[in-house]
Each structure stands twice: as C-alpha cells, then as structure tokens.
Amino acid sequence: MSVEIEGLVKVKNSKLVVVLGMHRSGTSAITRGLEVLGVNLGDNLYPAAIDNPKGFWEDNDFLGINEELLAHLDYSVDRLGLIDWQMPSTAIVESLELKAEKLVSERCKKNALWGFKDPRTARLLPFWQAVFERVGCDVRYVIATRNPISIVESLYKRSGFEGGTTFYLWLEHLIPAISGTMNAKRVVVDYDQLLENPKLQLLRVAKALGVTAPEPLALFAFESEFLDVGLRHTYFTMQDLERYPSVPLQVVTAYDWLVKLANDSVLLDSAETKSVFEALSQELIFLSPTLNFIGYQEQKIVTFTQTIAEREQLIAALQAQTQDLQAQAQDQLKGAAWMTSQRDAWEQSAVQSHQAIAALDAKLYKIRSHWGMRLINLLCKNKIL
After folding, report:
1. Where would you tag: which of 117, 118, 126, 139 has the fewest CB atoms within 10 A of its CB?
2. For the segment 75-108, what is each residue's pLDDT rounded down to a tens digit?
3. Rounded Cα distance, 68 and 70, in Å
4. Could you tell me where the beta strands, DSSP code E, fall in the chain?
5. CA-based angle 40:46:48, to the nearest 5?
6. What is the pLDDT of residue 302?
7. In sequence order, which residues have a C-beta less than 8 Å from that of residue 204 and are 6 or more positions away?
C-alpha cells in the first residue's frame, strides 16, 4: 500500500468529535470529559486563566484559524449578526481553507479518535464543514447547553456584556449547532446535568457518538479531580428563564427544546425537532439585519470607548509630564533664587572687602607718613642729610 493510500485510509477511519456551544456554557468541562472516552484533544492547548482555572481545552491551531476568519469577515467573538453568511471568495479565505485542510488531515492521520473545541466554531460551521467534507473525515458533534441566564450573568461579571446581547449571541451559537448538524452523529449535553451525574452523561455521549464507554480510572479522576461544583456560581431553572426580564421568546423556545434533547425525551433527528429549529433558524435570519446593525453600533461604541481610553491615558501621561516639568521649573527657580542670594551676598562681601582694603590703605599711608617724617628728622639731627 502506498503512503498516499495509507494516509487516505487513516483519514477515512479517523473519527473527529467537534464540541459546539456558547461561551461560558460548560464547553470546557464537557470537552475535558471527552478524554475519558479516549478522545485525543492534542497538546497545543490554550492555557488556563483566572476566569477558567481548570483550562479552556481549546486547540490553539483551530482557535487561530477561527480568529483570523472572524477578523476577515469583520466580526469578533462578541459581535452580533453573523447569521446565514456567505463565504467570501478571497485570497485570505483560500489560504485559511488550505491551512485548515492540512491541519485536519494531519490530525486524522495521527489519531483514530480526536476532537477540538472552540465556541467560535458554532458560528463558522459553513467554513469547517466544507473543510471536513474535502478532507473526508468522519465528524460527530457534542452540543453543549446551559441555562442562558447563567451565561448572561457569567459574561456580565467577566466582560460587562449586557443581557440582551448575550441572549441573541446564545441563539447565534445554539441554533446553527442544531440546524447545521442534521443527519450527523451528535448529542446534546447539559452542563448542570454533567456536574450532577458525569458518568451518566459520558455514557450518553459514548452511545450517541459510537465510541467506547468511559474508562473507570479516567472517569474517577475526571469526577474527583477535575469537576468542581464550587466553580458553578449560578443555577437556574426553566421557570427562572421564563420569568426573566426581557428574555426573547426564541431563547425560551430553544432552551426548552435543548433541555428535552439533553434529557432524551425527544429525538434529535425527529421531524418535530427539525421543524422547530428550522423555524427558529428562519426567525434568526429574519432578525439578522437588526442584529447586524446592533452589532455594528456596539462595535463602534467599543471602538469609541477604546479611543477615549487611549486619549485619557495620553492626557494623563501629558499631565504627569507637565507636572514633572513644573517641578523641574520650580527647582530651577529655587536654584536661581539661591544663586541670586549668593550673588548679592558675594557682592556685599566684595564691597565690605573693598572698604576694609581702603581703610587699611589709609592706615598704611598714615603709618608710612609718620615714620617717614621721623626718619627725616632723625637723619637731619645726625646731620646725615
């Protein structure tokens, strides 16, 4: 078998698990749980941070491509409106496609079962699914969900996001995660249920994706060393969401169905599920111009805020510099005043010295005159003169 054919066989036999979901919805914990099922997450992971001390479990290579693509589309991780978008035919996109194809192909050849997670992927599914199809890898999806109120409060605490923006960002992540993965092997996992019964949820994932059940020792380490209920700062129910102020109806509907899907009370591939999420997708597309406008205005506000902050920093630096110059000027004025006083003292001392010298000269003159006369008299008396 040639090297090329062997590589194609490895790619075809490789299984890729992609974790989709909104930021702060438990995607990190769910992704870490995939390791218990034998999913290789790679060794080039984004480091842990104060807002995620257990780690993000995001592959830097996939994260980098997503960030480059978002920037090229003139979007950011928190900007609304990236809905039903068309892939631009540009040199940058072509370069990113080639980079992504090479990355996925190499990972498939090296791993029989592997995965990656980045919440940005949910809104960039058209790009990645085209890559997966060209490479020819077998893709499965884990869709992470959590009560949207928890996400709203978490993002407000971490980044100051307003609730209205977060609710619609949640829709932009979760609706395509469901409607864009029809007919693929997939499973919905609720973060709160994972914390309550990790073994049950990982068994669900293993069954839905067709992978091996959790390895007992790895599962024990995941439960006892990684998962920490203390890191979950909020917990809300469906009733809390329904009563929450200004929550969009689409959010309530979508989360209600995601709860049913996470509880296996309805099937992901049922006609009813497909109908509900197709309707939600159409509503989101209808809202797209408004959300895009809001996102654009919010981006302008962010830019203006950053500009104001930079100018305030510049003003503060100039004020500090001015104060330093004023202090230097004061020091110089004090020095000049000291020098003036010293000059006056020196001048007064010089005058006094001149006066003393003049007085000494007068005394010397008198002495000389006195002794001169006495000398003349003495000489005359002795008849020398």
Report:
1. 126
2. 988 899 888 888 889 999 999 999 999 999 999 9
3. 6
4. 15-20, 113-117, 138-145, 185-190
5. 105
6. 67
7. 187, 189, 264
